[in-house]
Design goal:
Number of helices: 5
Strand order of the largest sheet: 1-2
Oligomer: single chain
Structural class: mainly alpha
Order of helices and strands: HHEEHHH
Number of strands: 2
Helix content: over 70%
Distance between the termini: 146 Å
């Protein structure tokens, strides 16, 4: 490949210095290739090792190879070897990779911390929600017990109210009955009083007639008056007794 073409280019430049590639040149053949202009204006691919060999052969005044170390001159590092350049490039790549991995590791660590904090926060929220649910369930159970207790109390008060209402209605009926009975007794009393008055009038009339019919019978005036009083008292007593007996019988019922 490129190595053979480079070597033939070197032989054409210096035909008296044909040689085998050195160990360094063989190692450098694996590096990147670059284009080198040919004498006829065409471009061909040559390896950096071949280009270095050509530079060394052109620079040597007697045509000898300058040792095993083949160098390449450039504008920045005129004497740096291709092996050092490759090693430095690999070191830079490794450093860049290391920095990138460290950055990724730092990002992953930060993300892990964030996820841990979020997990801790969610765990706290879950614990709080579980406590809230337990509190709500306890409150609901307590409320149900209170509702049942209040319902029983309301039922008891309603029963008591119904009983009081029934008692009040019974008392009202009894009061009305007693009022009617009192009115009946009052009417009976008035009737008895009228009868007593009639008896008194009849007794007075009888007494007057008796006096006129038998003025000389010798009956004392005081005895007639006493008899009238006894008759009136007996009638009044009978009326009062009848009224008391009637009231007693009504109350007993």
């Amino acid at each position: 490949g490129g190595g053979e073409r480079s070597l033939s280019f070197s032989s054409r430049a210096f035909p008296h210095n044909r040689r085998r590639p050195s160990r360094t040149e063989t190692t450098l053949q694996d590096t990147k290739t670059h284009r080198s202009p040919m004498e006829n204006g065409d471009e061909t691919l040559v390896s950096p090792a071949a280009a270095a060999s050509a530079e060394v052969e052109k620079a040597a005044p007697n045509g000898d190879v300058a040792g095993e170390e083949v160098t390449l001159a450039d504008a920045v590092h005129p004497a740096k070897s291709y092996a050092a350049v490759a090693a430095n490039a690999e070191i830079e790549d490794l450093r860049a990779t290391k920095l990138d991995l460290e950055e990724q590791l730092a990002n992953a660590s930060q993300e892990n911390k964030t996820l841990a904090a979020e997990a801790h926060r969610l765990e706290g929220l879950f614990s709080q929600a579980r406590d809230d649910v337990a509190t709500a369930e306890h409150a609901a159970a307590t409320t149900e017990e209170e509702v049942a207790s209040l319902r029983a109390e309301v039922e008891r008060l309603q029963a008591l109210l119904d009983r009081k209402k029934a008692d009040r209605e019974a008392d009202e009926r009894q009061r009305q009955e007693l009022t009617a009975e009192v009115e009946t007794v009052r009417q009976a009393k008035l009737k008895l009083e009228k009868e007593i008055d009639a008896l008194k009038a009849s007794a007075d009339a009888t007494t007057v007639k008796d006096r006129e019919a038998a003025p000389d019978a010798g009956v004392p005036k005081e005895e007639g008056v006493a008899w009238q009083g006894m008759a009136a008292g007996a009638a009044a007593g009978a009326a009062i007794t009848a009224a008391v007996v009637l009231i007693y019988l009504r109350l007993k019922r």
